[in-house]
Amino acid sequence: MPKVGMEPVRRQQLIDATIESVAQKGLQATTINSISKNAGMSSGIISHYFGGKQGLIEATVRYLLSNLKDDLISKVDEKTTPTQRLMFIVESNFALVQQRKDTTRTWLSFWAQSMHDKELHRLQNVNSKRLQSNLTVSFKQLMPLAQANLAAELTAAMIDGLWLRAVLSQSDENQFKHSESLAKNYVHSLIKQYGA
Amino acid sequence: MPKVGMEPVRRQQLIDATIESVAQKGLQATTINSISKNAGMSSGIISHYFGGKQGLIEATVRYLLSNLKDDLISKVDEKTTPTQRLMFIVESNFALVQQRKDTTRTWLSFWAQSMHDKELHRLQNVNSKRLQSNLTVSFKQLMPLAQANLAAELTAAMIDGLWLRAVLSQSDENQFKHSESLAKNYVHSLIKQYGA
DNA sequence: TTTTATTAATTGATCGTTCAATAAAGATAA
DNA sequence: TTATCTTTATTGAACGATCAATTAATAAAA
Protein backbone atom coordinates (compact mmCIF):
# COMPACT_ATOMS: atom_id res chain seq x y z
CA MET A 1 0.00 0.00 0.00
CA PRO A 2 2.44 2.68 1.12
CA LYS A 3 3.39 4.98 -1.67
CA VAL A 4 5.80 7.81 -1.10
CA GLY A 5 4.52 11.34 -0.64
CA MET A 6 1.21 10.40 0.89
CA GLU A 7 1.40 12.94 3.68
CA PRO A 8 -0.32 15.94 2.05
CA VAL A 9 -2.96 13.66 0.54
CA ARG A 10 -3.77 11.94 3.81
CA ARG A 11 -3.79 15.19 5.76
CA GLN A 12 -6.40 16.65 3.42
CA GLN A 13 -8.46 13.47 3.48
CA LEU A 14 -8.50 13.50 7.26
CA ILE A 15 -9.48 17.18 7.34
CA ASP A 16 -12.35 16.47 4.93
CA ALA A 17 -13.42 13.53 7.06
CA THR A 18 -13.38 15.76 10.13
CA ILE A 19 -15.63 18.37 8.50
CA GLU A 20 -17.97 15.57 7.48
CA SER A 21 -18.12 14.02 10.94
CA VAL A 22 -18.60 17.31 12.80
CA ALA A 23 -21.34 18.30 10.39
CA GLN A 24 -23.11 14.98 10.82
CA LYS A 25 -22.80 14.34 14.55
CA GLY A 26 -21.46 17.55 16.05
CA LEU A 27 -18.10 18.25 17.62
CA GLN A 28 -19.22 16.55 20.80
CA ALA A 29 -19.87 13.19 19.19
CA THR A 30 -16.95 13.36 16.79
CA THR A 31 -14.31 10.85 17.82
CA ILE A 32 -11.05 9.59 16.46
CA ASN A 33 -12.97 6.55 15.34
CA SER A 34 -15.76 8.42 13.55
CA ILE A 35 -13.20 10.50 11.68
CA SER A 36 -10.95 7.65 10.66
CA LYS A 37 -13.97 5.61 9.63
CA ASN A 38 -15.18 8.46 7.40
CA ALA A 39 -11.70 8.65 5.90
CA GLY A 40 -11.48 4.90 5.43
CA MET A 41 -8.32 4.67 7.49
CA SER A 42 -7.29 3.38 10.85
CA SER A 43 -7.50 5.41 14.04
CA GLY A 44 -3.78 5.44 14.64
CA ILE A 45 -3.04 7.51 11.57
CA ILE A 46 -4.51 10.64 13.12
CA SER A 47 -1.88 10.76 15.82
CA HIS A 48 0.76 9.99 13.21
CA TYR A 49 -0.08 12.97 11.00
CA PHE A 50 -1.53 15.47 13.47
CA GLY A 51 -0.09 14.47 16.84
CA GLY A 52 -3.57 13.81 18.18
CA LYS A 53 -7.22 14.70 17.91
CA GLN A 54 -6.71 18.30 19.03
CA GLY A 55 -4.12 18.86 16.31
CA LEU A 56 -6.51 17.63 13.65
CA ILE A 57 -9.33 19.83 14.94
CA GLU A 58 -7.13 22.90 14.81
CA ALA A 59 -5.78 22.05 11.37
CA THR A 60 -9.37 21.73 10.15
CA VAL A 61 -10.26 25.20 11.43
CA ARG A 62 -7.16 26.66 9.81
CA TYR A 63 -8.16 25.02 6.55
CA LEU A 64 -11.65 26.54 6.70
CA LEU A 65 -10.24 29.97 7.52
CA SER A 66 -7.75 29.95 4.67
CA ASN A 67 -10.53 28.82 2.34
CA LEU A 68 -12.56 31.86 3.31
CA LYS A 69 -9.58 34.14 2.86
CA ASP A 70 -8.64 32.77 -0.57
CA ASP A 71 -12.22 32.99 -1.78
CA LEU A 72 -12.28 36.78 -1.42
CA ILE A 73 -8.81 37.22 -2.89
CA SER A 74 -9.80 35.27 -5.99
CA LYS A 75 -12.81 37.51 -6.56
CA VAL A 76 -11.06 40.88 -6.26
CA ASP A 77 -8.62 42.54 -8.67
CA GLU A 78 -7.32 46.08 -9.19
CA LYS A 79 -10.39 47.09 -11.20
CA THR A 80 -12.87 46.21 -8.47
CA THR A 81 -14.83 49.20 -7.15
CA PRO A 82 -15.32 49.67 -3.40
CA THR A 83 -19.02 48.80 -3.66
CA GLN A 84 -18.26 45.68 -5.71
CA ARG A 85 -15.68 44.61 -3.17
CA LEU A 86 -18.22 44.96 -0.35
CA MET A 87 -20.58 42.69 -2.27
CA PHE A 88 -17.80 40.16 -2.75
CA ILE A 89 -17.13 40.17 0.99
CA VAL A 90 -20.77 39.38 1.66
CA GLU A 91 -20.74 36.65 -0.98
CA SER A 92 -17.61 35.05 0.45
CA ASN A 93 -19.17 34.73 3.87
CA PHE A 94 -22.18 32.97 2.43
CA ALA A 95 -20.31 31.10 -0.29
CA LEU A 96 -18.90 28.18 1.68
CA VAL A 97 -22.47 27.03 2.11
CA GLN A 98 -23.07 26.38 -1.53
CA GLN A 99 -19.91 24.50 -2.34
CA ARG A 100 -20.09 22.30 0.76
CA LYS A 101 -23.36 22.05 2.58
CA ASP A 102 -21.86 20.43 5.68
CA THR A 103 -19.34 23.21 6.25
CA THR A 104 -21.76 25.63 7.87
CA ARG A 105 -22.64 23.41 10.79
CA THR A 106 -18.97 22.74 11.32
CA TRP A 107 -18.22 26.45 11.61
CA LEU A 108 -20.73 26.95 14.39
CA SER A 109 -19.46 23.95 16.33
CA PHE A 110 -15.94 25.31 16.25
CA TRP A 111 -17.05 28.78 17.23
CA ALA A 112 -18.85 27.49 20.28
CA GLN A 113 -15.80 25.47 21.23
CA SER A 114 -13.55 28.51 20.74
CA MET A 115 -14.85 29.96 24.01
CA HIS A 116 -13.09 27.20 25.91
CA ASP A 117 -10.08 26.51 23.71
CA LYS A 118 -7.25 29.03 23.54
CA GLU A 119 -5.97 28.23 20.05
CA LEU A 120 -9.45 28.07 18.54
CA HIS A 121 -10.29 31.39 20.13
CA ARG A 122 -7.18 32.91 18.63
CA LEU A 123 -8.14 31.65 15.18
CA GLN A 124 -11.70 32.87 15.57
CA ASN A 125 -10.45 36.31 16.55
CA VAL A 126 -8.27 36.50 13.47
CA ASN A 127 -11.28 35.73 11.32
CA SER A 128 -13.58 38.17 13.06
CA LYS A 129 -11.07 40.99 12.89
CA ARG A 130 -10.34 40.30 9.24
CA LEU A 131 -14.00 40.55 8.28
CA GLN A 132 -14.32 43.91 9.99
CA SER A 133 -11.02 45.14 8.58
CA ASN A 134 -11.95 44.09 5.04
CA LEU A 135 -15.24 45.93 5.33
CA THR A 136 -13.64 49.07 6.78
CA VAL A 137 -11.15 49.36 3.92
CA SER A 138 -13.92 49.58 1.33
CA PHE A 139 -16.33 51.69 3.35
CA LYS A 140 -13.56 54.24 3.92
CA GLN A 141 -13.44 54.87 0.18
CA LEU A 142 -17.14 55.72 0.23
CA MET A 143 -17.62 57.75 3.43
CA PRO A 144 -15.77 59.52 6.28
CA LEU A 145 -13.70 57.42 8.64
CA ALA A 146 -16.02 57.52 11.66
CA GLN A 147 -19.00 56.43 9.59
CA ALA A 148 -16.92 53.78 7.84
CA ASN A 149 -15.95 52.18 11.12
CA LEU A 150 -19.55 52.13 12.28
CA ALA A 151 -20.79 50.77 8.95
CA ALA A 152 -18.21 47.98 9.10
CA GLU A 153 -19.21 47.01 12.62
CA LEU A 154 -22.90 46.94 11.74
CA THR A 155 -22.35 45.05 8.51
CA ALA A 156 -20.21 42.43 10.20
CA ALA A 157 -22.94 41.92 12.80
CA MET A 158 -25.65 41.75 10.15
CA ILE A 159 -23.74 39.17 8.12
CA ASP A 160 -23.04 37.01 11.16
CA GLY A 161 -26.61 37.35 12.44
CA LEU A 162 -28.26 36.42 9.15
CA TRP A 163 -25.83 33.58 8.73
CA LEU A 164 -26.36 32.31 12.28
CA ARG A 165 -30.12 32.34 12.01
CA ALA A 166 -29.99 30.53 8.68
CA VAL A 167 -27.71 27.84 10.09
CA LEU A 168 -29.69 27.32 13.28
CA SER A 169 -33.01 27.03 11.50
CA GLN A 170 -31.38 24.39 9.29
CA SER A 171 -32.26 26.31 6.17
CA ASP A 172 -31.96 25.13 2.59
CA GLU A 173 -29.85 26.84 -0.04
CA ASN A 174 -32.66 29.20 -1.05
CA GLN A 175 -32.88 30.60 2.46
CA PHE A 176 -29.15 31.24 2.41
CA LYS A 177 -29.52 33.04 -0.89
CA HIS A 178 -32.29 35.12 0.63
CA SER A 179 -30.09 36.03 3.59
CA GLU A 180 -27.20 36.94 1.30
CA SER A 181 -29.45 39.28 -0.63
CA LEU A 182 -30.70 40.94 2.57
CA ALA A 183 -27.10 41.53 3.65
CA LYS A 184 -26.25 43.12 0.28
CA ASN A 185 -29.27 45.39 0.47
CA TYR A 186 -28.20 46.46 3.92
CA VAL A 187 -24.74 47.41 2.68
CA HIS A 188 -26.32 49.46 -0.12
CA SER A 189 -28.55 51.26 2.37
CA LEU A 190 -25.54 52.09 4.55
CA ILE A 191 -23.72 53.54 1.55
CA LYS A 192 -26.78 55.61 0.65
CA GLN A 193 -27.14 56.77 4.26
CA TYR A 194 -23.54 57.75 4.98
CA GLY A 195 -22.05 57.98 1.49
CA ALA A 196 -20.32 61.21 0.66
CA MET B 1 -30.33 15.73 55.93
CA PRO B 2 -33.45 14.76 54.04
CA LYS B 3 -36.14 17.37 54.47
CA VAL B 4 -39.51 17.12 52.79
CA GLY B 5 -40.19 19.20 49.68
CA MET B 6 -36.60 19.46 48.54
CA GLU B 7 -37.42 18.65 44.92
CA PRO B 8 -38.00 22.18 43.49
CA VAL B 9 -35.01 23.49 45.45
CA ARG B 10 -32.66 20.78 44.27
CA ARG B 11 -33.87 21.04 40.68
CA GLN B 12 -33.08 24.76 40.59
CA GLN B 13 -29.72 24.25 42.29
CA LEU B 14 -28.77 21.64 39.72
CA ILE B 15 -29.88 23.87 36.83
CA ASP B 16 -27.77 26.72 38.23
CA ALA B 17 -24.83 24.39 38.59
CA THR B 18 -25.28 23.26 34.98
CA ILE B 19 -25.22 26.84 33.68
CA GLU B 20 -22.09 27.43 35.72
CA SER B 21 -20.31 24.34 34.47
CA VAL B 22 -21.19 24.87 30.80
CA ALA B 23 -20.07 28.47 31.03
CA GLN B 24 -16.77 27.50 32.63
CA LYS B 25 -15.76 24.42 30.68
CA GLY B 26 -18.16 24.21 27.76
CA LEU B 27 -20.87 21.68 27.05
CA GLN B 28 -18.27 19.20 25.84
CA ALA B 29 -16.41 19.04 29.12
CA THR B 30 -19.49 19.31 31.32
CA THR B 31 -20.08 16.00 33.06
CA ILE B 32 -22.39 14.63 35.68
CA ASN B 33 -19.52 14.97 38.09
CA SER B 34 -18.64 18.57 37.25
CA ILE B 35 -22.27 19.59 37.67
CA SER B 36 -22.86 17.76 40.93
CA LYS B 37 -19.57 19.08 42.28
CA ASN B 38 -20.64 22.65 41.46
CA ALA B 39 -23.95 22.00 43.20
CA GLY B 40 -22.25 20.43 46.20
CA MET B 41 -24.14 17.17 45.76
CA SER B 42 -23.44 13.68 44.61
CA SER B 43 -23.67 12.57 41.01
CA GLY B 44 -26.50 10.13 41.58
CA ILE B 45 -28.95 12.91 42.38
CA ILE B 46 -29.06 14.03 38.77
CA SER B 47 -30.56 10.80 37.57
CA HIS B 48 -32.95 10.92 40.53
CA TYR B 49 -34.39 14.33 39.65
CA PHE B 50 -33.90 14.56 35.90
CA GLY B 51 -33.73 10.96 34.73
CA GLY B 52 -30.21 11.53 33.44
CA LYS B 53 -27.80 14.08 32.05
CA GLN B 54 -29.83 14.75 28.92
CA GLY B 55 -32.91 15.57 30.98
CA LEU B 56 -30.98 18.11 33.03
CA ILE B 57 -29.53 19.74 29.93
CA GLU B 58 -32.97 20.16 28.40
CA ALA B 59 -34.46 21.46 31.65
CA THR B 60 -31.67 24.03 31.79
CA VAL B 61 -32.45 25.28 28.29
CA ARG B 62 -36.15 25.50 29.11
CA TYR B 63 -35.28 27.51 32.20
CA LEU B 64 -33.20 29.98 30.21
CA LEU B 65 -35.93 30.33 27.60
CA SER B 66 -38.66 31.01 30.14
CA ASN B 67 -36.39 33.53 31.85
CA LEU B 68 -36.06 35.41 28.58
CA LYS B 69 -39.82 35.28 28.03
CA ASP B 70 -40.73 36.48 31.52
CA ASP B 71 -38.22 39.31 31.35
CA LEU B 72 -40.03 40.93 28.45
CA ILE B 73 -43.49 40.35 29.98
CA SER B 74 -42.42 42.06 33.20
CA LYS B 75 -41.26 45.13 31.30
CA VAL B 76 -44.38 45.67 29.20
CA ASP B 77 -47.82 46.88 30.25
CA GLU B 78 -50.87 48.29 28.45
CA LYS B 79 -49.42 51.82 28.35
CA THR B 80 -46.23 50.76 26.53
CA THR B 81 -45.86 52.36 23.11
CA PRO B 82 -44.78 50.25 20.10
CA THR B 83 -41.39 51.93 19.99
CA GLN B 84 -40.87 51.44 23.72
CA ARG B 85 -41.78 47.78 23.37
CA LEU B 86 -39.21 47.34 20.61
CA MET B 87 -36.57 48.80 22.91
CA PHE B 88 -37.62 46.42 25.68
CA ILE B 89 -37.27 43.48 23.30
CA VAL B 90 -33.72 44.54 22.51
CA GLU B 91 -32.97 45.01 26.19
CA SER B 92 -34.32 41.59 27.10
CA ASN B 93 -32.05 39.88 24.62
CA PHE B 94 -29.02 41.58 26.08
CA ALA B 95 -30.24 41.57 29.68
CA LEU B 96 -29.37 38.03 30.72
CA VAL B 97 -25.77 39.07 30.36
CA GLN B 98 -25.84 41.60 33.13
CA GLN B 99 -27.63 39.58 35.75
CA ARG B 100 -25.56 36.48 35.13
CA LYS B 101 -22.31 36.82 33.28
CA ASP B 102 -21.91 33.13 32.60
CA THR B 103 -25.29 32.74 30.92
CA THR B 104 -24.19 34.01 27.54
CA ARG B 105 -21.60 31.34 26.92
CA THR B 106 -24.09 28.73 27.95
CA TRP B 107 -26.59 29.95 25.34
CA LEU B 108 -24.10 29.60 22.53
CA SER B 109 -23.08 26.11 23.61
CA PHE B 110 -26.69 24.99 23.57
CA TRP B 111 -27.34 26.60 20.23
CA ALA B 112 -24.46 24.76 18.63
CA GLN B 113 -25.64 21.51 20.11
CA SER B 114 -29.20 22.15 18.90
CA MET B 115 -28.12 21.28 15.37
CA HIS B 116 -27.62 17.69 16.43
CA ASP B 117 -30.25 17.29 19.15
CA LYS B 118 -33.92 17.14 18.21
CA GLU B 119 -35.41 18.52 21.43
CA LEU B 120 -32.86 21.32 21.72
CA HIS B 121 -33.50 22.27 18.12
CA ARG B 122 -37.23 22.43 18.82
CA LEU B 123 -36.63 24.72 21.78
CA GLN B 124 -34.25 26.92 19.81
CA ASN B 125 -36.85 27.25 17.06
CA VAL B 126 -39.50 28.36 19.54
CA ASN B 127 -37.16 31.06 20.80
CA SER B 128 -36.13 32.25 17.36
CA LYS B 129 -39.72 32.44 16.13
CA ARG B 130 -40.84 34.25 19.26
CA LEU B 131 -38.22 36.97 18.85
CA GLN B 132 -39.28 37.60 15.27
CA SER B 133 -42.97 37.45 16.18
CA ASN B 134 -42.54 39.87 19.08
CA LEU B 135 -40.74 42.30 16.80
CA THR B 136 -43.34 42.01 14.04
CA VAL B 137 -46.23 42.83 16.38
CA SER B 138 -44.72 46.18 17.31
CA PHE B 139 -43.36 47.08 13.87
CA LYS B 140 -46.84 46.49 12.41
CA GLN B 141 -48.16 49.33 14.51
CA LEU B 142 -45.59 51.65 13.01
CA MET B 143 -45.48 50.69 9.32
CA PRO B 144 -47.21 48.62 6.62
CA LEU B 145 -47.22 44.85 7.00
CA ALA B 146 -44.68 44.04 4.31
CA GLN B 147 -42.15 46.49 5.72
CA ALA B 148 -42.88 45.33 9.26
CA ASN B 149 -42.02 41.73 8.39
CA LEU B 150 -38.78 42.80 6.76
CA ALA B 151 -37.87 45.09 9.65
CA ALA B 152 -38.48 42.27 12.13
CA GLU B 153 -36.30 39.86 10.16
CA LEU B 154 -33.48 42.38 9.91
CA THR B 155 -33.70 43.41 13.55
CA ALA B 156 -33.66 39.81 14.75
CA ALA B 157 -30.54 39.19 12.67
CA MET B 158 -28.89 42.37 13.92
CA ILE B 159 -29.58 41.50 17.56
CA ASP B 160 -28.26 37.97 17.17
CA GLY B 161 -25.25 39.12 15.18
CA LEU B 162 -24.21 41.80 17.65
CA TRP B 163 -24.79 39.40 20.51
CA LEU B 164 -22.82 36.60 18.86
CA ARG B 165 -19.83 38.78 18.11
CA ALA B 166 -19.82 40.14 21.64
CA VAL B 167 -19.92 36.64 23.11
CA LEU B 168 -17.24 35.20 20.83
CA SER B 169 -14.83 38.06 21.44
CA GLN B 170 -15.33 37.43 25.16
CA SER B 171 -16.38 41.00 25.72
CA ASP B 172 -16.90 42.72 29.01
CA GLU B 173 -20.16 44.28 30.13
CA ASN B 174 -19.38 47.61 28.52
CA GLN B 175 -19.03 45.99 25.13
CA PHE B 176 -22.44 44.39 25.58
CA LYS B 177 -23.89 47.77 26.50
CA HIS B 178 -22.34 49.20 23.35
CA SER B 179 -23.89 46.43 21.25
CA GLU B 180 -27.27 46.96 22.86
CA SER B 181 -27.13 50.63 22.01
CA LEU B 182 -26.21 49.87 18.39
CA ALA B 183 -29.19 47.54 18.13
CA LYS B 184 -31.53 50.19 19.50
CA ASN B 185 -30.22 52.79 17.06
CA TYR B 186 -30.79 50.35 14.25
CA VAL B 187 -34.42 49.87 15.28
CA HIS B 188 -34.90 53.64 15.36
CA SER B 189 -33.43 53.97 11.88
CA LEU B 190 -35.78 51.28 10.56
CA ILE B 191 -38.76 53.12 12.03
CA LYS B 192 -37.59 56.36 10.44
CA GLN B 193 -37.01 54.63 7.13
CA TYR B 194 -40.26 52.71 6.83
CA GLY B 195 -42.51 54.45 9.38
CA ALA B 196 -45.84 55.66 8.09
C1' DT C 1 -41.45 2.04 61.34
C1' DT C 2 -41.99 3.74 57.00
C1' DT C 3 -40.91 7.02 53.71
C1' DT C 4 -38.10 10.36 51.57
C1' DA C 5 -33.67 12.15 50.36
C1' DT C 6 -29.07 11.40 49.42
C1' DT C 7 -24.61 9.35 49.10
C1' DA C 8 -20.76 6.59 47.66
C1' DA C 9 -19.19 2.71 45.33
C1' DT C 10 -19.53 0.20 41.22
C1' DT C 11 -20.61 -1.11 36.41
C1' DG C 12 -19.90 -1.40 31.61
C1' DA C 13 -19.11 1.32 27.70
C1' DT C 14 -16.22 4.48 25.25
C1' DC C 15 -12.75 7.76 24.83
C1' DG C 16 -7.79 9.29 23.01
C1' DT C 17 -3.31 7.63 22.88
C1' DT C 18 0.45 4.58 22.31
C1' DC C 19 3.04 1.06 20.15
C1' DA C 20 4.75 -3.23 18.15
C1' DA C 21 4.11 -5.34 13.83
C1' DT C 22 3.63 -5.28 8.90
C1' DA C 23 3.36 -4.24 4.07
C1' DA C 24 4.90 -1.98 0.12
C1' DA C 25 8.11 1.02 -2.34
C1' DG C 26 12.55 2.64 -3.38
C1' DA C 27 17.64 2.14 -2.96
C1' DT C 28 21.77 -0.46 -3.22
C1' DA C 29 24.80 -3.95 -4.53
C1' DA C 30 25.70 -8.39 -6.50
C1' DT D 1 18.16 -8.78 -13.35
C1' DT D 2 17.84 -10.27 -8.81
C1' DA D 3 18.42 -10.20 -3.95
C1' DT D 4 18.82 -7.54 0.18
C1' DC D 5 18.36 -3.51 2.92
C1' DT D 6 16.06 0.75 4.34
C1' DT D 7 12.47 3.91 4.60
C1' DT D 8 7.77 5.27 4.58
C1' DA D 9 3.03 4.35 5.47
C1' DT D 10 -0.36 2.06 7.96
C1' DT D 11 -2.77 -1.03 10.91
C1' DG D 12 -5.26 -2.71 14.97
C1' DA D 13 -4.87 -4.31 19.54
C1' DA D 14 -3.91 -2.92 24.27
C1' DC D 15 -3.95 0.61 28.00
C1' DG D 16 -5.39 3.82 31.31
C1' DA D 17 -8.64 7.40 32.01
C1' DT D 18 -13.19 8.93 32.17
C1' DC D 19 -17.88 8.87 31.17
C1' DA D 20 -23.18 8.21 32.40
C1' DA D 21 -25.83 5.32 34.81
C1' DT D 22 -27.14 2.13 38.36
C1' DT D 23 -27.40 0.21 42.90
C1' DA D 24 -27.11 -0.80 47.70
C1' DA D 25 -26.54 1.49 51.84
C1' DT D 26 -27.50 5.30 55.00
C1' DA D 27 -29.46 9.24 57.33
C1' DA D 28 -33.15 12.03 58.76
C1' DA D 29 -37.92 13.22 58.91
C1' DA D 30 -42.67 11.75 59.35
Question: Low-confidence spans of chain A: pLDDT under 50, at least 5 residues?
Answer: none
Alpha-carbon Rg of chain A, integer: 19 Å
Fourth-level CATH superfamily of the domain at 59-194 in chain A: Tetracycline Repressor, domain 2
CATH architecture of the domain at 59-194 in chain A: Orthogonal Bundle
CATH class of the domain at 59-194 in chain A: Mainly Alpha
Main sheet of chain A, how many strands, which sense, barrel? none
Gap between N and C termini of chain A: 64 Å
Chain oligomer state = homodimer
What percentage of amino acids of chain A are in beta strands?
A: under 5%
So how many helices of chain A? 9
Q: Could you tell me the CATH topology label of the domain at 59-194 in chain A.
A: Tetracycline Repressor, domain 2
Number of extended strands of chain A: 0
From N to C, what is the helix and strand string of chain A?
HHHHHHHHH
Overall 3D shape of chain A: elongated
Helix content of chain A: over 70%
Which two chains form the greatest contact, residue counts included? A-B, 38 and 38 residues
Summing up helix and strand content along with how strands pair, one would put the structural category of chain A as: mainly alpha
Report the mean per-residue pLDDT of chain A as an integer. 93
SSE layout:
The structure is a homodimer of 196-residue chains.
Chain A: H1 7-29, H2 32-39, H3 44-50, H4 53-75, H5 82-99, H6 103-114, H7 118-140, H8 145-168, H9 173-194
Helix pairs in contact in A: 1-2, 1-4, 1-6, 3-4, 4-5, 4-7, 5-7, 5-9, 6-7, 7-8, 8-9
Chain A binds a DNA duplex (30 and 30 nucleotides) through residues 1-7, 10, 31-33, 41-48, 52-54.
Domain HTH tetR-type (chains A, B): 8-68
Pathway (chains A, B): Amine and polyamine biosynthesis; betaine biosynthesis via choline pathway [regulation]
Keywords (chains A, B): DNA-binding, Repressor, Transcription, Transcription regulation
